[in-house]
Amino acid sequence: MREWSVLIVEDDLDVARLHQSLIARRSGFRVSGWASSGEAALRQVVATTPDLLLLDLKLNGLDGLALARRLRAHSAGVEIIVATSDQRAEVVEAVIHLGVVDYLLKPFGLDLLDQALGRFVHRRRALEAELLDQQVIEVACGGGRRGSRWLPRGLARETFEAVRHALGNNPDGVSAEELAAQVGLARVTVRRYLEHLEANGQAEIRVGTRSRGRPRKFYVPSTIRPLREPTGPRRPSPRA
Fold first, then answer.
1. Among residues 38, 27, 21, which one has the least CA distance to residue 3?
2. Are 8 and 40 in contact (CB under 8 A)?
3. Which helix H or strand E contains 22, and what residues bound it?
4. pLDDT digits (tens, 9 = 90+) for 105-150
5. What burial class does residue 142 get, using C-beta atoms within 10 Å of its C-beta: 0-12 exposed, 13-18 middle, 19+ buried?
6. DSSP letter assigned to residue 124
7. Tens of pLDDT along 79-90?
8. Spatial distance between the Cα atoms of 10 and 31, rounded to a whole number of angstroms
9. pLDDT range class, residue 215, cuts 50, 70, 90
């Protein structure tokens, strides 16, 4: 499975570490670095070509909005998830026009970030084909309401959460048939949700046997990654 690289652009080291710890819990993603200013972020984008920026807007020097505009003006392929406390409508509108993946208001938790990362994965995978149909275009454009917008058409948020919760209660692995019995749904329905979880790095597939018989496919919750220190310069002394 591909691992997506994320550059955290944040001038507060403690917040950067918090965001790193959240990303570390999402299988399929790794933090490639930390930049405390827009200028440093530009240098790292050129040097390391990350897939995604988790971008604060309030930075010294080149701020986050100016950075996003510069990246878009130079056709940089990096995607952007904004992470900010700025609630001004004109700023939100400006960022939306730049085609960001999502706009997250601080402080936010793992669930909200998880949705944004899932939306990023769907957008990137949707654009891998040469020709796109209407449904795939809607995914690439981020259509749908928050909470279910990154779920494929036909998958319900409530059922998704029930399957994900049940999977988490089976750390040693569970088959689609076994999980279907636990949540009271048809096996074919549960399999669709499990395949979506696996495609987005929230579940892993193992093949094995628990008794005599042919090998079967088991779904296991993705392993939580250990916390790593963000790379980059140390935060300067607090400003007055």
1. 27
2. no
3. helix 13-24
4. 998 888 788 888 888 887 887 777 778 777 667 666 764 433 344 5
5. middle
6. H
7. 999 999 999 999
8. 13
9. confident
pLDDT band (50, 70, 90) for residue 227: very low
Looking at the DSSP assignment, which residues form a beta bridge with residue 206?
218
In the predicted model, is pLDDT for residue 44 greater than 70?
yes
Q: What is the DSSP letter of 211?
A: S
Same topology for domains 4-121 and 157-221, yes or no? no
CATH number of the domain at 157-221, please? 1.10.10.10
* Pairwise CA distance, residues 99 & 234, whole Å: 31
CATH number, domain 4-121, options 2.60.120.40, 3.40.50.2300, 3.40.50.150, 3.30.1330.10: 3.40.50.2300
What is the DSSP secondary-structure string of 45-99?
A: HHHH--SEEEE-S--SSS-HHHHHHHHHHTT---EEEEEES---HHHHHHHHHTT
pLDDT of residue 136: 67
Instruction: Give SS3 for 32.
Output: strand
For the chain, report the end-to-end CA distance as a whole number of angstroms: 46
24-31: average pLDDT: 88
Domain ranges of the chain: 4-121, 157-221
DSSP class of 174: B
Beta-sheet strands, E only, within the chain? 4-9, 29-35, 52-55, 79-84, 102-105, 203-208, 216-221
Of 102, 82, 73, nearest in space to 8 by CA: 82
What percentage of residues in the chain have a pLDDT greater than 70? 82
